[in-house]
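Tutorial, part two.
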Amino acid sequence: MRSSMVRCRLLVWPRLLVWTLTVAVSASAAADEPPLHERIDALIDAAAAGPINPQSSDADFLRRASLDLTGVIPTAAQARAFFDDPATDKRPRLIEQLLASPRYARHMALSWDVMLLERRSDKTMKVSDWEEYLQKSFSENKPLDQLFRELLTSDGADEALRPAARFMLNRDCEPNAVTRDIGRMFFGMDMQCAQCHDHPLIEDYFQADYYGLFAFVLRSSLFNDRKTKLALVAEKAEGEADFKSVFTSASADNVTPRLPKGVALTGEPTFAKGEAYLVPPAANVRPVPKHSRRAELATLLDESHEFRRNLANRLWAHLFGRGLVHPLDFHHPANPPSHPELLTLLADELARSKFDAKRMLRELALTRAYQRSCDAPLPTSLSLPTAADEIVRWELRRPELAAKEEALKAASDKVRDQRKTFLAQLESQQKEVTALEATAKTSGEAAEKALAEQKAADESLAKVKEQSQLVTNAALRTSVAVKKIPGDKVVEQAFALLDGRAKALAIEAETATKAAAELVAKNGPILEQAKSDQAAVAASRAKLPLQELTRHERAVLDAQHKLADARYAIAALDSQLATAQAIGQWQAALSDPAQAEPAWDSVLDRWTVAGQVGRLRPLSCEQFTRGLMQATGVLNRQDEAARAALEKKPPAELTKAAETERAGVLARLVEQRAFDALRKDLATFVNLYGALPGDDFQATVNQALFFGNGSQVQDYLKPSDNNLADRLTKMEDPAALADELYLSVLTRLPTQDEKDDLAAYLQPRPDDRSAAIGELLWALVSSNEFRFNH
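Running the prediction step on this input gives:
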């Protein structure tokens, strides 16, 4: 692929002084530190084994930045304006313009929808509501940690945040499905294979890791509200995770919730029986606990080392087409980052900026690494030093890195031993708590039994008193009748019966009152003992040094992270040595073309991974579709129609906007209306092209038939309403026609050969010129140059 798009250029060598900058980068942030994009480039240049590609052309940069930041290629007019601009700061200005465009938020929404929902079907809510939520989040530059917290905590009941619940609802709130995807998308760790046993291929993924995360979501479930007909997220106040390996005897009960490779959740609130819910569970009632473990997980995201590294890696991959850790879902020691110091820098800066996605993307787009040409250098254009010299250069660093690793390993072992000692001490204290809990459980059960007896006695007494009062009242009323109807035997007999019964019930009530009082006296010590035992448990728990435990865990994790970074640095050094060795193999094979070509491809792949050569990558189906709409003029036509409709009948949002905000509001509304008008077209392409995984692109039979003969594509290519085909058909000058065609589709001017070929193709077809232009347009939009981002 690269050889078909080669535009040979000279390569430049990295400056040796970047080693000094590298040291500065690792220090704490200072007021006079270089901008982030310069520090990124310093790290990449310092790690380069071999030459570095020059800056891409204006045409490549304009197209690349437009696709990566807005998901759409530029128009011919935008391309001309950019090429003609002589200013030296036009690239930074372009980046700002793209980030401020409504299409930035749309592109991010589409991209993160694919990442978070993976094109799942619409089972619980309108996809448009979810898309609007994401689009609004990126339009307002919502901090990424806040976005991810909302995905975890939204239960769907709050109208404003209901769309965020789609992350849980579209997985049916099934704990294992949710656990796996939180692990992957929040922490960059696909631990699915650790559900039944420790991961068989990744030594660092343990079953305990999986269930530590599982314990946060185990209590959540899907609830279908019969009144509102809405799917909601329910949560219980109880339920503990446990596991047993299917391969070994390893097991655990009542697993403590724990972040992946993070600290355990300590000090969970406890509630008396019957007091753990804001809304208690009942038939057709969604339970809401006072304490939500899922919400607790959300509050812990910011402190997670793995969370911020995962997000930094995904933002890098968004612009570079490949993560520093790749695949994105497999962060672990055996899969080190290509640039360990760089990933640490990006993760720290992301957290320091309060997870500002737009700032990070801006800084990445400003780097020389992002703007680097992806044109494959010709082997004949290079004059490389011998591989032996390169190997010596990198080997000089090994003793320093090995010594650092050894020191950090010793530090890690030390804090682990300290934690082990502390845990032994804690264990004895926990045994005391356990013993008190057992005693409290026994006394609590006795208290519950006593309270039940007392409740039954009180209910019986109340019943007898009520009966006594009723019969006494009836006897009094009957006595009145006896006086007023003297000699009536029936009335007299009734009075005698009622009076006798009233006296019997009075005696019975007196006996019941005495029994109830005796029961209270008897149960008093039992209840006091239960209360005392519960207080003893609470006091003993309060003495547990849980904060100290957290401190020890944090110290261990910090030491492990530093040790991992040191080992990643050694792995990066080994990668640099491997690149030098690959250069040597290529140099040794120059006399044999059959061996030299694959050796050269290996070198080129290594340079690409290292960021020394830009990455050639296929467009996503959304980029491809919307780029096709832009190239053929379909998107512009919808923009114009939307703008005309809004100006003719402006909505309240537009009329109420301040004068300084009106242009921005109008641009956003135009984008939204145009997107809605083309939503069905996009869905057609997504259904065909959206299932392709990975970085490779190979058209299927259905895709080839659709693109070659489908009515939708053919409609785009027919002259209509001043679209591209219509404009080209009206142009008489072949050279001007070629310029407009190539600028519109490929964001570059045609070469002289391409102009000559186009003129030669049109010259014999004056009678069907429109069809010929359609064929030329189809040839360009179906070309590799259009299908790939370069």
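The chain has a mean pLDDT of 89. In part three we will examine how such features are distributed along the chain.
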